UniProtKB/TrEMBL annotation, chain A:
Residues 3-174 form the Electron transfer flavoprotein alpha/beta-subunit N-terminal domain. SUPFAM superfamilies: Adenine nucleotide alpha hydrolases-like, DHS-like NAD/FAD-binding domain. The lineage of its organism: Bacteria, Pseudomonadati, Thermodesulfobacteriota, Desulfuromonadia, Geobacterales. This is Electron transfer flavoprotein subunit alpha/FixB family protein. PANTHER family: ELECTRON TRANSFER FLAVOPROTEIN ALPHA (PTHR43153), ELECTRON TRANSFER FLAVOPROTEIN SUBUNIT ALPHA, MITOCHONDRIAL (PTHR43153:SF1). InterPro entries: DHS-like_NAD/FAD-binding_dom, ETF_a/b_N, ETF_a/FixB, ETF_asu_C, ETF_asu_C_CS, Rossmann-like_a/b/a_fold. Belongs to the ETF alpha-subunit/FixB family. It comes from the Bacteria. Transmembrane segments: none annotated. Keywords: Electron transport, FAD, Flavoprotein, Transport. The keyword Protein biosynthesis does not apply.
From TrEMBL, chain B:
The keyword Transport applies. Residues 23-215 form the Electron transfer flavoprotein alpha/beta-subunit N-terminal domain. SMART domains: ETF (SM00893). The lineage of its organism: Bacteria, Pseudomonadati, Thermodesulfobacteriota, Desulfuromonadia, Geobacterales. SUPFAM superfamilies: Adenine nucleotide alpha hydrolases-like. Pfam families: ETF (PF01012). InterPro entries: ETF_a/b_N, ETF_b, ETF_beta_N, Rossmann-like_a/b/a_fold. Keywords: Electron transport, Transport. Belongs to the ETF beta-subunit/FixA family. Gene3D superfamilies: HUPs. It comes from the Bacteria. This is Electron transfer flavoprotein subunit beta.
Protein backbone atom coordinates (compact mmCIF):
# COMPACT_ATOMS: atom_id res chain seq x y z
CA UNK A 1 0.00 0.00 0.00
CA UNK A 2 1.10 3.52 -0.61
CA UNK A 3 1.30 5.65 2.52
CA UNK A 4 1.69 9.37 2.87
CA UNK A 5 3.48 10.17 6.12
CA UNK A 6 3.00 13.64 7.58
CA UNK A 7 6.24 14.78 9.22
CA UNK A 8 6.36 17.26 12.09
CA UNK A 9 8.40 20.39 12.51
CA UNK A 10 8.28 22.82 15.43
CA UNK A 11 10.25 25.87 16.50
CA UNK A 12 12.63 25.37 13.57
CA UNK A 13 13.31 21.68 14.20
CA UNK A 14 12.32 18.36 12.65
CA UNK A 15 10.67 16.41 15.48
CA UNK A 16 12.03 12.94 16.34
CA UNK A 17 8.50 11.57 16.46
CA UNK A 18 8.53 11.87 12.65
CA UNK A 19 10.67 8.71 12.56
CA UNK A 20 7.93 6.76 14.34
CA UNK A 21 5.90 7.21 11.15
CA UNK A 22 8.55 5.19 9.30
CA UNK A 23 8.27 2.59 12.08
CA UNK A 24 4.56 2.31 11.29
CA UNK A 25 5.15 2.15 7.52
CA UNK A 26 7.80 -0.55 8.05
CA UNK A 27 5.46 -2.71 10.15
CA UNK A 28 2.67 -2.25 7.62
CA UNK A 29 5.10 -3.04 4.76
CA UNK A 30 3.87 0.15 3.10
CA UNK A 31 5.62 2.20 0.47
CA UNK A 32 6.21 5.55 2.21
CA UNK A 33 6.11 9.03 0.73
CA UNK A 34 6.49 11.99 3.08
CA UNK A 35 4.98 15.43 3.32
CA UNK A 36 6.04 18.10 5.72
CA UNK A 37 5.99 21.78 6.33
CA UNK A 38 9.61 22.23 7.36
CA UNK A 39 12.97 23.43 6.19
CA UNK A 40 15.64 22.49 3.61
CA UNK A 41 18.17 22.53 6.44
CA UNK A 42 16.28 19.93 8.49
CA UNK A 43 15.58 17.11 6.04
CA UNK A 44 14.64 13.71 7.44
CA UNK A 45 17.06 10.84 6.94
CA UNK A 46 14.96 9.12 4.26
CA UNK A 47 15.81 8.28 0.66
CA UNK A 48 12.28 8.46 -0.77
CA UNK A 49 10.09 11.23 -2.10
CA UNK A 50 9.52 14.22 0.16
CA UNK A 51 7.01 16.97 -0.56
CA UNK A 52 8.33 19.98 1.31
CA UNK A 53 6.63 23.29 2.00
CA UNK A 54 8.67 26.00 3.64
CA UNK A 55 7.67 26.69 7.25
CA UNK A 56 8.88 30.28 6.92
CA UNK A 57 6.29 30.86 4.21
CA UNK A 58 3.48 28.55 5.41
CA UNK A 59 3.79 28.94 9.15
CA UNK A 60 4.41 26.04 11.51
CA UNK A 61 0.78 26.17 12.55
CA UNK A 62 -1.75 27.10 9.91
CA UNK A 63 -4.18 24.20 9.65
CA UNK A 64 -6.27 25.49 6.72
CA UNK A 65 -3.19 25.99 4.62
CA UNK A 66 -1.42 22.78 5.72
CA UNK A 67 -4.61 20.86 4.97
CA UNK A 68 -4.72 22.32 1.45
CA UNK A 69 -1.09 21.37 0.83
CA UNK A 70 -1.75 17.81 2.01
CA UNK A 71 -4.83 17.54 -0.22
CA UNK A 72 -2.75 18.64 -3.21
CA UNK A 73 -0.18 15.91 -2.49
CA UNK A 74 -2.96 13.35 -1.97
CA UNK A 75 -4.33 14.19 -5.38
CA UNK A 76 -0.93 13.68 -6.97
CA UNK A 77 0.11 10.52 -5.12
CA UNK A 78 -3.27 8.92 -4.44
CA UNK A 79 -2.07 7.19 -1.23
CA UNK A 80 -4.09 4.46 0.50
CA UNK A 81 -3.20 5.84 3.91
CA UNK A 82 -2.34 9.24 5.29
CA UNK A 83 -0.55 8.87 8.60
CA UNK A 84 0.06 11.45 11.33
CA UNK A 85 1.51 11.21 14.83
CA UNK A 86 -1.26 11.56 17.44
CA UNK A 87 0.12 14.86 18.72
CA UNK A 88 -1.17 18.41 19.06
CA UNK A 89 -0.28 18.82 15.37
CA UNK A 90 -1.62 15.48 14.15
CA UNK A 91 -4.90 15.27 16.04
CA UNK A 92 -5.64 18.86 15.00
CA UNK A 93 -5.01 18.34 11.30
CA UNK A 94 -6.07 14.72 10.68
CA UNK A 95 -9.87 15.20 11.10
CA UNK A 96 -9.80 18.18 8.73
CA UNK A 97 -8.07 16.08 6.05
CA UNK A 98 -10.37 13.10 6.70
CA UNK A 99 -13.52 15.18 6.22
CA UNK A 100 -12.16 16.83 3.09
CA UNK A 101 -11.49 13.35 1.60
CA UNK A 102 -14.53 11.75 3.24
CA UNK A 103 -12.09 9.11 4.44
CA UNK A 104 -12.39 7.07 7.63
CA UNK A 105 -10.11 8.26 10.43
CA UNK A 106 -8.66 5.93 13.02
CA UNK A 107 -7.12 7.75 16.01
CA UNK A 108 -4.20 6.86 18.24
CA UNK A 109 -3.37 3.49 16.68
CA UNK A 110 -1.19 1.29 18.91
CA UNK A 111 -0.86 -1.73 16.59
CA UNK A 112 -1.70 -3.01 13.14
CA UNK A 113 -4.03 -6.02 13.33
CA UNK A 114 -5.47 -8.31 10.74
CA UNK A 115 -8.32 -6.45 9.11
CA UNK A 116 -7.94 -3.25 11.10
CA UNK A 117 -6.12 -1.12 13.62
CA UNK A 118 -5.92 -1.55 17.36
CA UNK A 119 -6.67 1.56 19.42
CA UNK A 120 -7.01 2.19 23.14
CA UNK A 121 -10.24 3.29 24.79
CA UNK A 122 -11.83 3.73 28.22
CA UNK A 123 -8.79 5.55 29.59
CA UNK A 124 -6.40 2.86 28.41
CA UNK A 125 -8.27 0.07 30.18
CA UNK A 126 -9.65 -1.51 26.99
CA UNK A 127 -8.80 -1.88 23.31
CA UNK A 128 -10.85 -1.74 20.12
CA UNK A 129 -10.12 -3.05 16.64
CA UNK A 130 -11.35 -0.47 14.13
CA UNK A 131 -11.90 -1.41 10.52
CA UNK A 132 -12.16 1.42 7.99
CA UNK A 133 -14.54 0.93 5.07
CA UNK A 134 -13.32 3.72 2.81
CA UNK A 135 -10.66 3.32 0.07
CA UNK A 136 -8.46 5.93 1.74
CA UNK A 137 -7.81 5.99 5.48
CA UNK A 138 -6.48 8.75 7.74
CA UNK A 139 -4.54 7.42 10.71
CA UNK A 140 -2.90 8.93 13.77
CA UNK A 141 -0.40 6.72 15.63
CA UNK A 142 0.07 6.83 19.38
CA UNK A 143 3.36 8.49 20.34
CA UNK A 144 5.80 5.76 21.35
CA UNK A 145 3.71 2.86 20.04
CA UNK A 146 5.86 2.34 16.94
CA UNK A 147 9.63 2.26 17.34
CA UNK A 148 11.30 5.14 15.49
CA UNK A 149 13.22 4.10 12.36
CA UNK A 150 15.64 6.23 10.34
CA UNK A 151 15.49 4.76 6.82
CA UNK A 152 18.69 6.63 5.84
CA UNK A 153 19.51 8.48 2.63
CA UNK A 154 18.64 11.88 1.25
CA UNK A 155 15.11 12.59 0.10
CA UNK A 156 14.16 13.56 -3.43
CA UNK A 157 12.54 16.85 -2.58
CA UNK A 158 9.55 18.30 -4.42
CA UNK A 159 9.14 21.88 -3.22
CA UNK A 160 5.61 23.12 -2.75
CA UNK A 161 4.65 26.77 -3.04
CA UNK A 162 2.60 28.27 -0.21
CA UNK A 163 -0.97 28.54 -1.49
CA UNK A 164 -1.63 31.54 0.75
CA UNK A 165 -4.70 32.14 2.80
CA UNK A 166 -5.84 30.42 5.94
CA UNK A 167 -8.36 31.93 8.30
CA UNK A 168 -6.27 31.60 11.41
CA UNK A 169 -3.44 33.79 12.56
CA UNK A 170 -0.61 32.23 14.55
CA UNK A 171 0.52 34.70 17.22
CA UNK A 172 3.45 32.78 18.68
CA UNK A 173 4.74 30.23 21.14
CA UNK A 174 4.68 30.59 24.87
CA UNK A 175 7.59 28.73 26.48
CA UNK A 176 7.06 26.13 29.19
CA UNK A 177 6.96 27.56 32.70
CA UNK A 178 10.22 27.80 34.60
CA UNK A 179 10.78 24.67 36.57
CA UNK A 180 11.03 25.21 40.32
CA UNK A 181 11.69 21.50 40.72
CA UNK A 182 13.88 19.60 38.29
CA UNK A 183 12.33 16.15 38.51
CA UNK A 184 14.64 14.87 35.77
CA UNK A 185 17.50 14.89 38.31
CA UNK A 186 15.62 13.16 41.13
CA UNK A 187 16.58 9.57 41.99
CA UNK A 188 13.26 8.93 43.66
CA UNK A 189 9.91 10.42 42.69
CA UNK A 190 6.71 9.82 44.62
CA UNK A 191 3.71 11.03 42.64
CA UNK A 192 0.19 11.83 43.73
CA UNK A 193 -2.78 11.03 41.50
CA UNK A 194 -6.47 11.64 41.73
CA UNK A 195 -6.77 8.58 43.97
CA UNK A 196 -5.36 10.56 46.93
CA UNK A 197 -8.86 12.05 47.14
CA UNK A 198 -8.29 15.64 48.24
CA UNK A 199 -5.73 18.41 48.48
CA UNK A 200 -5.04 17.88 52.19
CA UNK A 201 -3.90 14.32 51.50
CA UNK A 202 -1.06 15.45 49.25
CA UNK A 203 1.01 16.10 52.41
CA UNK A 204 0.87 12.36 53.15
CA UNK A 205 2.36 11.59 49.73
CA UNK A 206 4.98 14.32 50.20
CA UNK A 207 5.92 12.73 53.53
CA UNK A 208 6.67 9.43 51.77
CA UNK A 209 8.74 11.31 49.17
CA UNK A 210 10.75 12.86 52.02
CA UNK A 211 11.18 9.53 53.81
CA UNK A 212 12.59 8.05 50.59
CA UNK A 213 14.82 11.09 49.96
CA UNK A 214 12.94 11.98 46.80
CA UNK A 215 10.78 14.62 45.18
CA UNK A 216 7.04 14.97 44.95
CA UNK A 217 5.52 14.40 41.50
CA UNK A 218 1.92 14.61 40.35
CA UNK A 219 -0.42 13.50 37.61
CA UNK A 220 -2.33 15.96 35.50
CA UNK A 221 -5.74 15.90 37.27
CA UNK A 222 -4.04 16.76 40.57
CA UNK A 223 -2.28 19.72 38.95
CA UNK A 224 -5.45 20.89 37.16
CA UNK A 225 -7.30 20.76 40.48
CA UNK A 226 -4.49 22.94 41.93
CA UNK A 227 -3.59 20.44 44.63
CA UNK A 228 0.03 20.48 43.44
CA UNK A 229 1.95 23.13 41.44
CA UNK A 230 2.44 22.54 37.71
CA UNK A 231 6.22 22.19 37.95
CA UNK A 232 5.68 18.84 39.69
CA UNK A 233 3.66 17.40 36.80
CA UNK A 234 4.94 14.20 35.20
CA UNK A 235 3.78 13.34 31.69
CA UNK A 236 3.54 14.52 28.11
CA UNK A 237 2.72 18.11 29.01
CA UNK A 238 4.87 18.10 32.16
CA UNK A 239 8.27 16.56 32.75
CA UNK A 240 9.61 13.27 31.40
CA UNK A 241 11.46 11.40 34.12
CA UNK A 242 13.46 8.20 34.62
CA UNK A 243 14.38 7.95 38.32
CA UNK A 244 15.72 4.86 40.05
CA UNK A 245 12.40 4.52 41.85
CA UNK A 246 9.03 5.91 40.82
CA UNK A 247 6.12 5.51 43.22
CA UNK A 248 2.69 6.14 41.68
CA UNK A 249 0.12 6.79 44.41
CA UNK A 250 -3.49 6.62 43.27
CA UNK A 251 -2.56 7.18 39.61
CA UNK A 252 -4.67 5.16 37.18
CA UNK A 253 -2.12 5.57 34.37
CA UNK A 254 -3.43 7.66 31.49
CA UNK A 255 -1.22 7.24 28.42
CA UNK A 256 0.07 10.82 28.77
CA UNK A 257 1.30 10.05 32.29
CA UNK A 258 2.82 6.69 31.34
CA UNK A 259 4.73 8.37 28.50
CA UNK A 260 6.41 10.60 31.09
CA UNK A 261 7.55 7.92 33.56
CA UNK A 262 7.62 4.46 32.03
CA UNK A 263 11.40 4.52 31.59
CA UNK A 264 11.93 4.65 35.36
CA UNK A 265 14.20 1.85 36.62
CA UNK A 266 11.66 0.55 39.14
CA UNK A 267 8.00 1.43 39.34
CA UNK A 268 5.91 0.85 42.44
CA UNK A 269 2.21 1.59 42.03
CA UNK A 270 -0.44 1.76 44.71
CA UNK A 271 -4.00 1.57 43.43
CA UNK A 272 -7.22 0.07 44.68
CA UNK A 273 -8.11 -1.06 41.14
CA UNK A 274 -5.91 -3.97 40.11
CA UNK A 275 -6.97 -3.49 36.46
CA UNK A 276 -5.75 0.12 36.36
CA UNK A 277 -3.50 0.73 33.32
CA UNK A 278 -0.62 1.75 35.62
CA UNK A 279 -0.30 -2.03 36.22
CA UNK A 280 0.94 -2.32 32.61
CA UNK A 281 4.20 -0.57 33.43
CA UNK A 282 4.52 -1.19 37.19
CA UNK A 283 7.09 -3.66 38.53
CA UNK A 284 4.98 -3.96 41.65
CA UNK A 285 1.30 -3.08 42.00
CA UNK A 286 0.05 -2.85 45.56
CA UNK A 287 -3.72 -3.32 45.54
CA UNK A 288 -4.75 -1.08 48.43
CA UNK A 289 -6.29 2.20 49.49
CA UNK A 290 -3.46 4.65 48.95
CA UNK A 291 -4.41 6.62 52.06
CA UNK A 292 -3.99 3.53 54.24
CA UNK A 293 -0.93 2.02 52.59
CA UNK A 294 1.24 5.14 52.14
CA UNK A 295 1.22 6.33 55.78
CA UNK A 296 1.93 2.76 56.92
CA UNK A 297 4.92 2.54 54.56
CA UNK A 298 6.21 5.95 55.64
CA UNK A 299 5.93 4.98 59.32
CA UNK A 300 7.85 1.74 58.78
CA UNK A 301 10.58 3.57 56.83
CA UNK A 302 11.02 5.98 59.76
CA UNK A 303 11.83 3.10 62.12
CA UNK B 1 -23.92 35.98 20.27
CA UNK B 2 -25.31 32.49 19.64
CA UNK B 3 -23.32 29.82 21.41
CA UNK B 4 -23.50 26.02 21.23
CA UNK B 5 -21.79 23.58 23.56
CA UNK B 6 -21.73 19.87 22.68
CA UNK B 7 -21.49 17.35 25.49
CA UNK B 8 -21.27 13.59 25.77
CA UNK B 9 -22.30 11.37 28.62
CA UNK B 10 -19.68 8.74 29.44
CA UNK B 11 -19.41 5.97 32.02
CA UNK B 12 -17.43 6.49 35.19
CA UNK B 13 -13.94 5.53 34.00
CA UNK B 14 -13.16 3.86 37.33
CA UNK B 15 -15.66 1.15 36.33
CA UNK B 16 -14.77 -2.30 35.18
CA UNK B 17 -15.72 -2.80 31.52
CA UNK B 18 -17.12 -5.97 30.00
CA UNK B 19 -17.73 -6.46 26.26
CA UNK B 20 -21.35 -6.34 25.06
CA UNK B 21 -23.05 -9.20 23.21
CA UNK B 22 -21.76 -8.11 19.80
CA UNK B 23 -18.25 -7.56 21.24
CA UNK B 24 -18.06 -4.05 19.77
CA UNK B 25 -18.37 -1.86 22.89
CA UNK B 26 -18.93 -2.24 26.63
CA UNK B 27 -21.97 -3.74 28.25
CA UNK B 28 -23.90 -0.81 29.71
CA UNK B 29 -25.40 -2.78 32.61
CA UNK B 30 -24.31 -1.59 36.08
CA UNK B 31 -22.38 1.42 34.79
CA UNK B 32 -22.84 4.87 36.33
CA UNK B 33 -22.80 7.75 33.86
CA UNK B 34 -21.57 11.33 34.09
CA UNK B 35 -20.66 14.24 31.85
CA UNK B 36 -17.43 13.73 29.88
CA UNK B 37 -14.78 15.59 31.88
CA UNK B 38 -13.44 17.59 28.91
CA UNK B 39 -16.99 18.75 28.20
CA UNK B 40 -17.32 20.20 31.70
CA UNK B 41 -14.57 22.65 30.75
CA UNK B 42 -16.40 23.37 27.48
CA UNK B 43 -19.66 24.10 29.34
CA UNK B 44 -17.87 26.32 31.86
CA UNK B 45 -16.17 28.35 29.12
CA UNK B 46 -19.44 28.68 27.19
CA UNK B 47 -21.26 29.84 30.34
CA UNK B 48 -18.51 32.38 31.11
CA UNK B 49 -18.81 33.77 27.58
CA UNK B 50 -22.60 33.83 27.90
CA UNK B 51 -22.24 35.84 31.12
CA UNK B 52 -19.76 38.30 29.57
CA UNK B 53 -22.04 38.92 26.60
CA UNK B 54 -25.12 39.40 28.76
CA UNK B 55 -28.69 39.13 27.58
CA UNK B 56 -27.87 39.63 23.92
CA UNK B 57 -26.41 36.13 23.93
CA UNK B 58 -27.94 32.73 23.98
CA UNK B 59 -26.41 29.38 24.94
CA UNK B 60 -27.66 25.98 23.78
CA UNK B 61 -26.31 22.66 25.06
CA UNK B 62 -26.58 19.62 22.77
CA UNK B 63 -26.16 15.93 23.50
CA UNK B 64 -26.80 12.75 21.49
CA UNK B 65 -27.90 9.47 23.05
CA UNK B 66 -30.62 7.52 24.82
CA UNK B 67 -32.78 8.96 27.63
CA UNK B 68 -30.00 8.65 30.22
CA UNK B 69 -28.09 11.56 28.62
CA UNK B 70 -30.77 13.95 29.92
CA UNK B 71 -28.95 13.74 33.28
CA UNK B 72 -25.81 15.27 31.73
CA UNK B 73 -27.97 17.83 29.91
CA UNK B 74 -29.60 18.86 33.21
CA UNK B 75 -26.20 19.43 34.77
CA UNK B 76 -25.22 21.71 31.87
CA UNK B 77 -28.49 23.62 32.25
CA UNK B 78 -27.85 24.00 35.98
CA UNK B 79 -24.34 25.30 35.19
CA UNK B 80 -25.96 28.06 33.12
CA UNK B 81 -26.96 26.97 29.61
CA UNK B 82 -30.25 28.54 28.43
CA UNK B 83 -31.80 25.58 26.66
CA UNK B 84 -30.99 22.07 25.54
CA UNK B 85 -31.26 19.92 22.46
CA UNK B 86 -31.44 16.20 23.05
CA UNK B 87 -30.88 14.22 19.87
CA UNK B 88 -32.48 10.90 20.71
CA UNK B 89 -30.38 7.99 19.55
CA UNK B 90 -30.50 4.51 21.07
CA UNK B 91 -27.59 3.39 18.86
CA UNK B 92 -25.22 6.26 19.62
CA UNK B 93 -22.37 3.96 20.69
CA UNK B 94 -22.34 2.33 17.23
CA UNK B 95 -21.84 5.65 15.42
CA UNK B 96 -18.39 6.62 14.23
CA UNK B 97 -17.03 10.16 14.77
CA UNK B 98 -17.92 11.06 11.18
CA UNK B 99 -21.60 10.28 11.83
CA UNK B 100 -21.65 12.13 15.17
CA UNK B 101 -20.10 15.22 13.56
CA UNK B 102 -22.58 14.93 10.66
CA UNK B 103 -25.56 14.78 13.04
CA UNK B 104 -24.43 17.86 14.96
CA UNK B 105 -23.58 19.76 11.77
CA UNK B 106 -27.06 19.06 10.38
CA UNK B 107 -28.51 20.75 13.47
CA UNK B 108 -25.91 23.53 13.79
CA UNK B 109 -25.98 24.55 10.12
CA UNK B 110 -29.58 25.75 10.44
CA UNK B 111 -28.98 27.70 13.64
CA UNK B 112 -25.84 29.58 12.59
CA UNK B 113 -23.93 29.62 15.87
CA UNK B 114 -21.18 32.21 16.33
CA UNK B 115 -19.20 29.98 18.65
CA UNK B 116 -19.21 26.26 19.29
CA UNK B 117 -17.47 24.58 22.23
CA UNK B 118 -16.70 20.87 22.52
CA UNK B 119 -14.38 18.81 24.68
CA UNK B 120 -11.10 17.94 22.95
CA UNK B 121 -12.01 14.24 23.19
CA UNK B 122 -14.26 11.87 25.08
CA UNK B 123 -12.91 9.88 28.00
CA UNK B 124 -14.32 6.60 26.69
CA UNK B 125 -13.51 6.70 22.94
CA UNK B 126 -10.71 9.26 23.01
CA UNK B 127 -10.67 9.76 19.23
CA UNK B 128 -10.35 13.58 19.35
CA UNK B 129 -12.15 13.79 16.00
CA UNK B 130 -15.70 15.12 16.41
CA UNK B 131 -14.89 18.77 17.22
CA UNK B 132 -12.48 19.36 14.33
CA UNK B 133 -14.72 17.36 11.94
CA UNK B 134 -17.73 19.44 12.92
CA UNK B 135 -15.82 22.67 12.23
CA UNK B 136 -14.72 21.31 8.86
CA UNK B 137 -18.27 20.29 7.94
CA UNK B 138 -19.55 23.74 8.90
CA UNK B 139 -16.64 25.51 7.22
CA UNK B 140 -15.69 27.46 10.35
CA UNK B 141 -12.27 28.10 11.94
CA UNK B 142 -11.23 25.72 14.65
CA UNK B 143 -8.65 25.60 17.44
CA UNK B 144 -8.13 22.31 19.26
CA UNK B 145 -6.73 21.44 22.71
CA UNK B 146 -7.39 24.90 24.09
CA UNK B 147 -6.17 25.87 27.59
CA UNK B 148 -6.72 29.63 27.29
CA UNK B 149 -9.67 31.43 25.69
CA UNK B 150 -10.93 34.97 25.19
CA UNK B 151 -13.33 36.54 22.72
CA UNK B 152 -13.57 40.24 21.97
CA UNK B 153 -15.23 42.00 19.03
CA UNK B 154 -15.81 38.67 17.28
CA UNK B 155 -12.16 37.69 17.45
CA UNK B 156 -11.20 34.60 19.43
CA UNK B 157 -7.74 34.33 20.97
CA UNK B 158 -7.01 30.74 21.88
CA UNK B 159 -4.03 29.22 23.60
CA UNK B 160 -3.36 25.67 22.44
CA UNK B 161 -1.52 23.17 24.59
CA UNK B 162 1.43 21.61 22.76
CA UNK B 163 3.88 18.97 23.99
CA UNK B 164 6.43 19.62 26.75
CA UNK B 165 4.51 22.46 28.40
CA UNK B 166 4.83 24.78 25.37
CA UNK B 167 1.69 26.66 24.28
CA UNK B 168 0.75 28.04 20.88
CA UNK B 169 -1.34 31.21 20.74
CA UNK B 170 -3.62 31.84 17.75
CA UNK B 171 -6.39 34.17 16.70
CA UNK B 172 -9.43 33.58 14.52
CA UNK B 173 -12.65 35.36 13.64
CA UNK B 174 -16.06 33.99 14.53
CA UNK B 175 -17.86 31.85 13.53
CA UNK B 176 -15.44 29.44 15.15
CA UNK B 177 -15.16 26.26 17.15
CA UNK B 178 -12.84 25.44 20.04
CA UNK B 179 -12.14 22.04 21.58
CA UNK B 180 -11.41 22.33 25.29
CA UNK B 181 -8.55 20.71 27.14
CA UNK B 182 -8.43 19.93 30.88
CA UNK B 183 -7.28 22.90 32.94
CA UNK B 184 -8.88 25.55 30.70
CA UNK B 185 -10.89 26.85 33.66
CA UNK B 186 -12.38 25.55 36.89
CA UNK B 187 -15.82 24.11 36.08
CA UNK B 188 -18.44 25.33 38.55
CA UNK B 189 -20.63 23.10 40.67
CA UNK B 190 -24.31 23.70 40.01
CA UNK B 191 -25.90 25.38 43.04
CA UNK B 192 -29.24 24.23 44.42
CA UNK B 193 -31.15 27.33 43.24
CA UNK B 194 -29.67 26.89 39.76
CA UNK B 195 -30.58 23.20 39.75
CA UNK B 196 -34.18 24.23 40.57
CA UNK B 197 -34.15 26.94 37.89
CA UNK B 198 -32.80 24.46 35.35
CA UNK B 199 -35.89 22.28 35.80
CA UNK B 200 -37.92 24.96 34.03
CA UNK B 201 -35.56 25.25 31.07
CA UNK B 202 -36.59 23.87 27.71
CA UNK B 203 -35.20 20.53 26.47
CA UNK B 204 -35.96 20.09 22.76
CA UNK B 205 -36.05 16.42 21.75
CA UNK B 206 -35.21 15.55 18.15
CA UNK B 207 -35.15 12.02 16.70
CA UNK B 208 -31.73 11.20 15.25
CA UNK B 209 -33.34 10.01 12.00
CA UNK B 210 -34.19 13.64 11.19
CA UNK B 211 -30.51 14.61 11.24
CA UNK B 212 -28.46 11.54 10.32
CA UNK B 213 -28.03 11.12 6.58
CA UNK B 214 -24.57 9.51 6.52
CA UNK B 215 -23.35 5.91 6.68
CA UNK B 216 -20.44 5.14 9.00
CA UNK B 217 -16.95 5.15 7.48
CA UNK B 218 -15.38 2.81 10.05
CA UNK B 219 -16.63 -0.02 12.25
CA UNK B 220 -15.49 -1.48 15.54
CA UNK B 221 -14.95 -5.21 15.08
CA UNK B 222 -13.66 -6.08 18.55
CA UNK B 223 -13.64 -4.72 22.10
CA UNK B 224 -11.31 -6.40 24.57
CA UNK B 225 -8.87 -5.77 27.41
CA UNK B 226 -5.22 -5.15 26.45
CA UNK B 227 -2.93 -8.16 26.38
CA UNK B 228 -1.21 -8.32 29.77
CA UNK B 229 2.49 -7.76 29.31
CA UNK B 230 3.18 -9.59 32.55
CA UNK B 231 6.19 -8.87 34.75
CA UNK B 232 4.34 -6.76 37.28
CA UNK B 233 3.92 -8.34 40.68
CA UNK B 234 0.56 -7.95 42.40
CA UNK B 235 0.77 -7.40 46.14
CA UNK B 236 -2.56 -8.03 47.84
CA UNK B 237 -3.63 -8.79 51.40
CA UNK B 238 -3.63 -6.72 54.58
CA UNK B 239 -1.77 -3.45 54.84
CA UNK B 240 0.96 -4.54 57.31
CA UNK B 241 1.90 -7.53 55.14
CA UNK B 242 1.86 -5.39 52.02
CA UNK B 243 4.21 -2.87 53.64
CA UNK B 244 6.66 -5.61 54.65
CA UNK B 245 6.59 -7.16 51.20
CA UNK B 246 7.14 -3.84 49.47
CA UNK B 247 10.04 -2.90 51.76
CA UNK B 248 11.69 -6.25 51.06
CA UNK B 249 11.22 -5.75 47.32
CA UNK B 250 12.61 -2.21 47.40
CA UNK B 251 15.69 -3.42 49.32
CA UNK B 252 16.23 -6.26 46.89
CA UNK B 253 15.48 -4.54 43.57
CA UNK B 254 16.47 -0.90 44.04
CA UNK B 255 19.44 0.96 45.45
CA UNK B 256 17.44 3.73 47.03
CA UNK B 257 16.94 2.32 50.53
CA UNK B 258 19.93 2.91 52.72
Amino acid sequence: MKTLLIGEFREGKLLDSTYELFGFAGQAADEPVMFMVGSETQLPSFGGRLYLADAAACGEYNPDLHKQLILNVVQKENPDRIVFVHSSYGWDLAPRVAVALKAAQVSEVVAIQEGGFEVGCCNGKMRRIVKPSTPQTVITIQAGAFQGVQPGGTPQVTRLAAPGGGTMEFVGYEPAEEKGVDLAKAEVIVSAGRGVGKKDNVAIIAALAKALGGELGASRPVVDAEWVAHDHQVGTTGQTVSPKLYVACGISGAIQHLAGMKKSDFILAINKDKDAPIGEVADVLVVADVMQFVPALTAKLAK
Amino acid sequence: MKILVCIKQVPDLESRFKPNASNTWFDEADLAYRMNEYDEYAVEQAVQLREECGDSSDLTVLSIGPDRVVEAIKKALAMGCDRAVHIQDQAVSSRDPWQIASIISAYAREHKFDLIFTGMQSQDRGSAQVGAMLAELLGVSCATTVVGFSCKDNVVTAKRELEGGVKGVMRMKTPALVTCQLGLNIPRYPTLPNIMKAKKKEIIALPVADLLKEESLAKTTSFHPPAKKGGGLLVEGDIADQVDKVLALLKEKTAVLR
